Amino acid sequence: MSEKNRRELVSWRIGKLPDTDQLNEWVNAQSNVQNSITSLVRHMIEQFGYRDVTQHDIQKSLFQKTNS
């Protein structure tokens, strides 16, 4: 990874998202939000590699898994 792409901080603004209440409920249920989000990201990397998770095939796979 090049130095210009190396991030030390990523912010996540949920206040204006349509499902703010659900997101806040999930965040409040975590004992450590940083560890929880890191765990989710690592799982996504393991499943799909370094790809944009909004790509159609990934979204299709995610929703099929949740509806099974």
Break the fold down into its secondary structure elements and pairings.
Elements: H1 20-29, H2 33-48, H3 56-66
How would you describe this protein?
Keywords: Plasmid. By secondary structure, this protein is mainly α. The protein has one domain (17-66). 54% of the residues lie in helices and 0% in strands. The chain is built from three helices and no strands. The longest helix has 16 residues, at 33-48. The model has no long low-confidence stretch (mean pLDDT 92).
Q: Could you give a short description of this structure?
A:
By secondary structure, the chain is mainly alpha-helical.
List keywords for this structure.
54% helix; 68 residues; mainly alpha
> How much β-strand is present in the residues?
under 5%
Please trace the helix and strand order, writing H or E for each element.
HHH
Q: If you average the pLDDT, what whole number results?
A: 92
Tally of individual domains = 1
Largest sheet at a glance? none
What is the CA-based Rg, rounded? 14 Å
The total of helices stands at 3
User: What's the helical proportion of residues?
Assistant: 40-55%
Report the principal-axis shape.
globular
User: Distance between the terminal alpha carbons, to the nearest Å?
Assistant: 36 Å
Indicate the low-confidence ranges by residue numbers.
none
Secondary structure category: mainly alpha
- Using DSSP, what is the number of strands? 0
